[in-house]
Amino acid sequence: MDVRGVQARIVRCRRCPRLVVHRQAVAAAPPRRFQGETYWGRPVPSLGPPTARLLLVGLAPAAHGGNRTGRMFTGDASGGSGEWLARALHAHGFATQPTSRHRGDGFDLVDAYITAAIHCVPPDNRPLPIELRRCAVYLREELALLRGVRVVVALGRIGFDAYLGAAGELGWSVPRPRPRFAHGAAVDLPWGVTLLSTYHPSRQNTHTGRLTWPMFDAVFADARRRLSKKAREPRR
């Protein structure tokens, strides 16, 4: 199995009946601003080259972002998480352009790979624990295949917990006590990866000032600095 094979399985997945119903219902009744568009309405695959050294782990596709466009963090409303992420990635050389609006718009990742704790849009952005467990199999498979990763950016607490949980299930030596999520925190892990954390760039966080642009941008500046110092030998 290679990364492309994992993505093909993700797109076909129907493991979570509640999420299947929800993603299809959202696609069948778009808001006025997206009337006439054909929604993706399926699990959203990960994005990026399998040789990437930077891994980003998010929460889930947005109802009218990834669930509409079929691409991670793409097509969100103005000021949404996709806009913030594309801008930050481009600013530090991890993307070809600072906007990500639709598939085929020229946006590509450079030395970066984006995945999520769950690949279907959940009601109210709140996946159930059983749904996270079902989707975790794909993250485990990706981690085992993405051998070049040196820095991981967790976009929010759920992404942080999903990454460490998948690493533990793969038998990697997760530190004890287990690292705690905190914005701006950096943890050097025994398998040669540095885990960076940021509040999720959701509108709830960015519009309230809990997460500001300088705070978010600093995390990706840190990722770039760390990658510039890390060797390219196979990860331990």
Describe this structure in words.
The chain is an alpha/beta fold and 236 residues long. The protein has 8 helices and 5 strands. The protein has a 5-stranded mixed β-sheet with strand order 2-1-3-5-4, with helices on both faces. The mean pLDDT is 94.
Number of domains: 1
Quickly give the CATH architecture: 3-Layer(aba) Sandwich
Q: CATH class, please? A: Alpha Beta
> Can you count the helices?
8
Strand content: 5-15%
> Can you tell me the overall shape?
globular
CATH topology: Uracil-DNA Glycosylase, subunit E
- Distance N to C terminus: 21 Å
Descriptors for this entry?
alpha/beta, 236 residues, Uracil-DNA Glycosylase, subunit E, 5-stranded mixed β-sheet, 37% helix
